[in-house]
Model the fold of this input.
Amino acid sequence: MALNNFFEALYPKLLSTATQKKGERIILVVAIASFLIHLAIIYLIDLNIITLNSPSALLSNPIAAIYTPFSFILVYEVYLLIYYLPKSFSTYISKQYEIIVLIVIRRLFKDLSNLSLSSDWFKIKYDLQFTYDLLASMLLFYLIFLFRKESNKRFPAGEAEESNDNGLARFIKTKKILAASLVPVIVLVSVYSFVNWLLSTLQSASQAAESFKNINNVFFEQFFTILIVVDVILLLFSFFHTDEFHKIIRNSGFIISTILIRMSFSVDGMLNTLLIISAIVFGLIILLIYNQYEKHLSAENTRL
Done:
């Protein structure tokens, strides 16, 4: 009980609108500064002022400098996901989709530094990955638009939902406690992931090369694992609020969607892209069917 009261008191300090606006300004400043620093390091290496035995592609091409500010933008998107968790479940899910799409776009900037402009475009691994990501980012952008459009649809509440206001209030309170407790967890995981990655880059040259190769997965592989746990907790607590079949299926479907996104970090190439697309398509279809249920139930209640 005392722990619940602690996180309830912590929530307005970590996830209020004022904190969100302040965090947005800080991230913007940090993102601009990190871009300029990354760019400066690249030019210092190019001028031989800084010497490295085998610099990564991220430190040899000025275009790759865009990767760093994008990483901080992703950090802010993670915060926004937690921020929207108690407010709107569909917005919370759409933020998951936005994060994975931004990861794909960030990867595009990384892959730009590895491109080989030749007639063998479709035979070179990095060129193929760039092509997959380029096409996928456009498709995913459109799928998220459709998801947000569907999630904004509202139908008149049925009698059962109206009579369960107390259950809804308790569920929102639970989501606030969960969101507040999630902030320190995410901070600890992000620090651990970064330190672990940094230490691996300071090992042998082969380990450093492998670390830079998998840099796109740093933190976010663990992050989506945490989201699966959060989604399951939300599903279980939602039973206190409602036992309506279509809502249970919607929430279960969103968990499957998150699992598919998490699985995408375990593979690369075309399979990685297909898993990400499949995750968002699955979530969109679940939402479309859910809205049809809501529309049908609303029409039935109107006739009654």
Observations:
- DSSP finds eleven helices and no strands in the chain.
- Residues 2-303 form one domain.
- The two ends are 43 Å apart (CA to CA).
